[in-house]
Design a protein that fits this description.
The longest helix has 14 residues, at 53-66. The protein starts with a helix and ends with a helix. The chain is built from five helices and five strands; from the N terminus they run αββαβαββαα. The protein has helices at 3-12, 53-66, 78-86, 120-130, 146-150, and strands at residues 19-22, 38-41, 70-72, 91-96, 106-109. It has a single domain, classed as 3-Layer(aba) Sandwich (Rossmann fold). With 154 residues, the protein is α/β, with parallel strands linked by helices. It is 32% helix and 14% strand. Strand 3, helix 3 (78-86) and strand 4 form a beta-alpha-beta unit. Helix 1 packs parallel to helix 4.
Length: 154
């Protein structure tokens, strides 16, 4: 669901180095993406009840050492929106539903009402629109390795 946003970021910031923080279970989606320069495996940080505070603060420290100037926080968890703040990232963009985006600098309202549901990819694109990025015709993208392609029957 995040790959359209990644394309938008690359289009708007062609010289930027894009780092993607993902859990061990989901990093495969972006590991071979041509728009992602670095993937940080956050293990189970972000899964309620599955990580220790030590791991959380270790990740915040790792992010702080990287000196990012912009972070898109795609999860609505207050614990995850707090990470880039702890890491000292000056601009933090993310969805704000039910007031959970309190630590973001750019809070993009997301309805929690069943009558106003949006596709998750569209919510992510709204984050880019909210900070003035052009969103032309992004698409979902998964880039399998050649080894993975060989495993698929013709």
């Amino acid at each position: 669901m995040t790959t359209p946003l990644l394309e938008v970021l690359q289009h708007n910031y062609p010289q930027a180095s894009i780092t993607y923080v993902a859990g061990s279970w989901s990093k495969v989606i972006v590991e071979h993406s041509p728009v992602v320069n670095r993937v940080i495996d956050c293990g189970t940080v972000g899964i309620p009840g599955r990580y220790m505070l030590r791991e959380y603060f270790h990740l915040a420290h790792l992010l702080r050492r990287s000196s990012f100037d912009l972070a898109f926080v795609l999860d609505r968890s207050p614990m995850l929106t707090l990470l880039p703040w702890l890491a000292g990232v000056p601009r933090r963009v993310g969805p704000d539903s039910l007031g959970r985006g309190f630590s973001l600098t750019d809070r993009v309202p997301v309805s929690a009402s069943p009558q106003h549901l949006q596709h998750q990819a569209e919510i992510y694109l709204d984050l880019a629109r909210a900070i003035g990025l052009s969103v032309d015709a992004p698409r979902m993208r998964f880039v399998p390795t050649s080894e993975e392609r060989q495993k698929v029957p013709p």
